[in-house]
Amino acid sequence: MTEKLERGAAMEGGLYAGIFIERERVRVCVARHTGDDHVNGGSRPRAEVINGKMFSGGGAEMLTAAGEWLAQKFPEVEGVGIAGFGPFVSLDPADADQDYADGEYGLVDPRRADMPFRGVNLPAVIAGAFVAQGAAVPAIAVHTDACVGALGDAWLRGVTDCEANNVTVFLMLTDGVGAGYVSGLSIIRGGLHPEIGLIDVSLHPDDPLIGTDLGQRSDLGCVASSRAMVMRAQELGFEVESIDDVYEIEHKYLWPIWAGYIARACLVCTALLSPRRIALGGPMMQQKFALHAIQARFHDLWVDRSEGPAFSYEGLHEIDFIEKASRQGDLDAMVGGAVCLAMSAKRPTSWTGQNVVPIVKKRSSGDIET
């Protein structure tokens, strides 16, 4: 199914905030809705960036600090879109309790999630900041970082809400591998959210991980993770401690092997969804050869499988539909997608106009103006 973004939900001239959550920082962008572009029977919202801020330090405290800043500086904000890395208990707005005070909507799974947001209800944190400020709680929408990235990439490229056959895939390449899909400007969602990191991939016979603990795994999210890349480099004799130390290393059994696993994910998405575009985002794309290596390996995989009629549809004999994620001015796909999500946010059906959400303890340091 798709989650239709109702363009009429955004008020022209209203303020909307996008929040992008990473493991060690939170980025906030405030934008003004300046109207809609109407193209070929569809519409696309326009937005002008007003302000932004980055908070660092990790954990729910930095999200609380971001909410407090937003509520103090822009108490009139109409909607907030949150992009988080989950996994979530629910992304169905019907599961939001009244005024976002409780419920499972936007709750980071306390059983499966890694720290630092395990068990945190993301909408409740933001709503609590507005309550503490004495401001009206805005409508809040939450989704995964990869799905929001797909939405942002499509929006920044000028896709409209009526282009149902224009599918954008976004692969988030970071601690693991995440995937998000949109049709036009509508997030494609099933019971919860995509988990492409669970797909099984065969290890390359020359993968340095073979014989290690990680080499016993075959799930994409593990073998293509930043942790796996650090371990590969160490197995090859390089003295590295973090992924930042690995980006500049050139070795035939390092980034080319990683690119092969990502290319397989692209192949799976292509076979299932027939996308017009696959956007690649996340810190792993800092590696200067990553894009070319993924494109080249995908081409090899595609040629091996493209003889039959099922793989002969137009446009996918080329590899130029796999690109880095879009950027436009102050907006990249992640923050831009969160702003776009905010412009479609709705309040819960049980909305009362009041809120009693407890606020998380504020972190007083580590914020940076952008």
Note down, in words, how this protein is organized.
- This protein is an alpha/beta fold.
- It has helices at about 60-75, 120-135, 145-155, 220-225, 225-235, 255-275, 290-305, 335-340, and strands spanning about 1-5, 15-20, 25-40, 40-55, 80-85, 140-145, 165-175, 175-185, 185-190, 275-280, 320-325, 325-330, 330, 365-370.
- The strands form three sheets. A six-stranded mixed β-sheet has the order 1-9-8-7-10-11, sandwiched between helices. It has a six-stranded mixed β-sheet with strand order 6-5-2-3-4-14, with helices on both faces.
- α7 (about 290-305) links the parallel β10 and β11 (about 320-325).
- The longest helix is centred in the last third of the chain and has 19 residues, at about 255-275.
